[in-house]
């Protein structure tokens, strides 16, 4: 949600290649997320949890979490990664996660040591061992 406006975005390349499948599966999938967010709040439910599955069933659509499309030959969007550290190693977070941290909307912890991830600008270049 941006500026109080909710929107649903679709990958134009995938949509163009698999128009019918996207119309039948992807559109209801994303609209179900919207409905669950309005009814329950996104922070209170799992993305593909029982609430989402119930909406999908109400739509009369298979409630599997994702479709499988052959993406060969389609342009790939590369996300910038931001370096973070914990007590045991380096991590590379996506722009989306980095921005959530900056806005105070999220805190991430290492799955191995449990420590909070801390921004480490010097680690912003891809390197081996970064997760």
N-end to C-end Cα span: 28 Å
The neighbouring-strand order within the major sheet is 2-1-3
Order of helices and strands: HHHEEHE
- Which residue ranges are poorly predicted, with pLDDT under 50 across at least 5 consecutive positions? 127-131
Mean pLDDT: 87
Q: Report the sheet-strand fraction.
A: 5-15%
Sum up the overall morphology in one term.
globular
Features:
alpha+beta, 4 helices, 9% strand, 3 strands, 3-stranded antiparallel β-sheet
How would you characterize the overall build of this protein?
A 3-stranded antiparallel sheet has the order 2-1-3. The protein has helices at residues 12-17, 19-40, 50-59, 95-102; strands spanning 81-85, 90-94, 118-119. The two termini are 28 Å apart. It folds into 2 domains: 1-77, no CATH class; 81-123, no CATH class. A hairpin with a 4-residue loop joins strand 1 and strand 2. The chain is globular and about 45 Å long. It is built from 4 helices and 3 strands, in the order αααββαβ. With 131 residues, it is α+β, with helices and mostly antiparallel strands. Mean pLDDT is 87; it is low at 127-131.
Task: Describe the structure in brief.
This protein is α+β, with helices and mostly antiparallel strands and 131 residues long.
Layout of strands and helices, then pairs:
Elements: H1 12-17, H2 19-40, H3 50-59, E1 81-85, E2 90-94, H4 95-102, E3 118-119
Antiparallel strand pairs: 1-2, 1-3
Helix pairs in contact: 2-3
């Amino acid at each position: 949600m941006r500026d109080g406006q909710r929107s649903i975005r679709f990958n134009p390349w995938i949509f163009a290649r698999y128009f019918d499948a996207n119309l039948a599966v992807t559109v209801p999938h994303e609209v179900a997320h919207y409905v669950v967010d309005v009814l329950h709040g996104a922070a209170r439910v799992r993305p593909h949890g029982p609430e989402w599955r119930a909406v999908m069933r109400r739509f009369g659509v298979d409630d599997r979490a994702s479709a499988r499309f052959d993406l060969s030959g389609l342009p790939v969007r590369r996300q910038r990664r931001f370096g973070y550290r914990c007590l045991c190693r380096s991590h590379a977070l996506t722009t989306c996660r980095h921005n959530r941290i900056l806005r105070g909307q999220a805190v991430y912890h290492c799955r191995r040591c449990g420590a909070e991830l801390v921004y480490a600008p010097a680690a912003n270049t891809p390197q081996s061992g970064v997760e």
